C-alpha cells in the first residue's frame, strides 16, 4: 500500500461513508493498527481507477502487511503477559526464602549475639595459604583466620564471632577480606557469605530483590546456595 496516500485515502473513505471529520485525530504511521489497515484497504478499493484496478499481487502484499502487523501486536502482548507472569511467579517462589539462609557474594556481615558467620571463596588455583581477615567498619583488624594450604575450588570458612584474644566481638557490621598466598605473591579474593533473608520485594523495573539486613538488597539471581 502506498502510505504516502494514507491521508487522502482515509478522507475519501470518510466522505464515501457520509461521516464528518469533526475533531479530526490524525495518527502517525507507527500508530496504525489492524483496524486502520482494513480501513485503508477498503478506502483504496473504493478509490481505485475501475480501468486500472489493483492487481492481485499488490492486494496479497497488502494482506501480508496486515497479517504481519496483527501478528507482531499479538506477539508483543503475549511476551509482555508472559514476562509479568514469570515475575509474579518468581516473586511468590522467592517469598518462601524469608527467614532462610542464603549464600551470596558480598564482604559485609552483621554479627548478632555471637552467631557464627559462614562464608566461601572460590580458588582458581591451589594456594599455600588462604587467610580471612575480619575488620570493623573503620578498618581495624578484629580476627585473622589462617585456613592453611587449599586446593583449587570452593573453600568454606567460618568466623565464630570472637576476636584474636578469643573474646566475643560486639554486635555490629564487619567486613571480610580474603587473601590467597602463592609463593611470594598474594591475591585478594571476593568472598561469598551467608545471610538471612529478611524480606522479598519486586521493584517496578523488575527483578526480584532479597533484603539481607546488613548486606542490603541483592538480586535473587545472585544467590549461590540456600541453607
What is the name of the CATH architecture of the largest domain? Answer: Sandwich
**Which range best describes the helical content: under 10%, 10-25%, 25-40%, 40-55%, 55-70% or over 70%?**
25-40%
Principal-axes shape call:
elongated
Give the CATH class of the largest domain.
Mainly Beta
Total helical elements: 3
Describe the structure.
The protein has 227 residues and is an alpha+beta fold. The chain has two domains: 78 residues; 90 residues, Immunoglobulin-like. The chain is 28% helix and 30% strand. Strands 6-3-9-1-13 form a five-stranded antiparallel beta sheet, with no helix packed on it. Strands 2, 4, 5, 7 and 8 form a five-stranded antiparallel beta sheet that branches. Helix 1 crosses helix 2 and helix 2 runs antiparallel to helix 3. The radius of gyration is 33 Å and the shape is elongated.
Give a nutshell description of this structure.
Helices cover 28% and strands 30% of the residues.
Ordered list of secondary-structure elements with their pairings:
Layout: H1 6-16, H2 34-47, H3 56-94, E1 101-105, E2 108-111, E3 117-123, E4 129-136, E5 141-146, E6 153-159, E7 172-182, E8 185-189, E9 192-196, E10 199-201, E11 209-211, E12 217-219, E13 225-226
Antiparallel strand pairs: 1-9, 1-13, 2-7, 3-6, 3-9, 4-5, 4-7, 7-8, 10-11, 11-12
Helix pairs in contact: 1-2, 2-3
